[in-house]
Amino acid sequence: LDEFSLIDRIKTAVRARAADPRVVLGIGDDAAVLDAALGRIAVTTDAMIEGVHFGFDLCSPADVGERAVAVNLSDLAAMGARPLALLFSLEIPRSMDDGVVLAVMRAAGRAAARHSAPVVGGNVTSTPGPFGVTVTALGDVAGDAFLTRSGARPGDAILVSGPLGAAALGLILLRDHPGHARSHPSLVRSYRRPAARVELGMTLGSAGGVHAAIDVSDGLLADLGHVLDASKVGARIDVERIPLPRGARRVSRDLGLDPLDAALSGGDDYELLVFADPAEPAVQALRRVGTVTKARGLTLHRDGKRMILPDVRGYRHRK
Amino acid sequence: LDEFSLIDRIKTAVRARAADPRVVLGIGDDAAVLDAALGRIAVTTDAMIEGVHFGFDLCSPADVGERAVAVNLSDLAAMGARPLALLFSLEIPRSMDDGVVLAVMRAAGRAAARHSAPVVGGNVTSTPGPFGVTVTALGDVAGDAFLTRSGARPGDAILVSGPLGAAALGLILLRDHPGHARSHPSLVRSYRRPAARVELGMTLGSAGGVHAAIDVSDGLLADLGHVLDASKVGARIDVERIPLPRGARRVSRDLGLDPLDAALSGGDDYELLVFADPAEPAVQALRRVGTVTKARGLTLHRDGKRMILPDVRGYRHRK
Question: Which of A99, A190, B136, B184 has its CA 20 to 30 A from that of B107?
């Protein structure tokens, strides 16, 4: 397919069934035009490169499309923003089958539609390098009802929206123990198709007692560190309170791994890490794992005893 | 530099001197938050890949940064939008010197500041492929005061904002006749540092008699074709009225080229192609090159005589 035919087929693949009234002008012009009815826009962009962030040996094209959407919507969730629209910039190796590109984009379109985030634009270019998808996600925000990394306060409860370490264990299974992978479909799925906490993020964004949030993409300790740095506070984490995914203990025992290591340092879970007044109703269903302290620095406790901080693999992204 | 240090230096490089009150939350959180004071947002994204869209043999790092900004702001100009913010997604080969990346981004930051388009976010990833810059540009728009490709009407004047073919001639000089290139600095500069018609676009966007616009990135005939298709109309172009860049005739004669070919099919000029009521005051300073016709199809005339349509190289993008 030439570029224009491919773009036409991508447009069809990502077209949502019902037109979104917020899209004044969609794909096909010099820019998209969107209604910013709440008066403020949240915007984020992230790239996924084959061989760096994923491989087609471990992920299907549909996984890649789903994941590209989830990673970006997760950033909006961490802001408490309502998804408004997505743009896709695709870098396509000359040798790549257009069918793979279309499978990626059909899955991306489905994931986008599930979260009411219409695909409104993008571009396609060939590349001598690997396949890449750069997504830009726009959300809308009312007034100051958004969540930064810098709002955590001493005394805040630190909470997580779900189990941590599943994606890291799923990746280890797929990459290093493919024979075991099929016995742990939910861990594998957590790696291949993480779920962005979009609805929860919107609820938290409009709850007055929620002071800060971040999504767990680099690992709990790394992302916690980003918030502590930005908020100029410290934290105590009670590691036995961190929820582990189902099957994590068993698979870790079988493979000689530490499930706590995956939970503390494994990235790509896309759960939300939330900093809130402990009495805030909107966080009562979340699991509290610690407390913000005035004293800077992070301490980990296990059953009340202070731990030596483990080697924090997640703290620095792979460049 | 590791990823976080590089990001810190990029942040410093692109930080504008004066804070923009429209930026509620800038670089450094999960997303940027922007005031959409006019109620509507225009958004576009475009990628520039080394070896596909530019080469460091022909362009300096500063040229690349300037160009990445201009290409995207030009899309906003073609919508009649006011620049609001930019995001940069950088793909950096492991072997690349961080100094080159910083030189690209310093120039990008200067170009962004010149057009009041603060850099509010982005991301950095390593890649086994070539260097790439994907820019997302946001603009704001009031009500229906924006320009699409689909609004051209029979009887509209077709106008261009400046000379065409300069960038194509500049590229040919640099690539094929480097010895001649230094004698034609303005052509070379048109290729390396095209100027986005941002101010003009905003003026046209709020002028009631302007019905459609596109920026000339693929070449006059190709971009004209996009508007004619979208508007379901045809056009007559009087080619002797197309403004040629200074020096184009002489350099074309010296090198055995046809300056009209560069003007019709050469891309990357980023002038605006405008479709408007001939009496609209806002277009009186632009050069009229033709008229929209009810009959579909495009005819070219030279001194009143119909031309055989030349081989339209620009009409299909290189994929």
Answer: B184
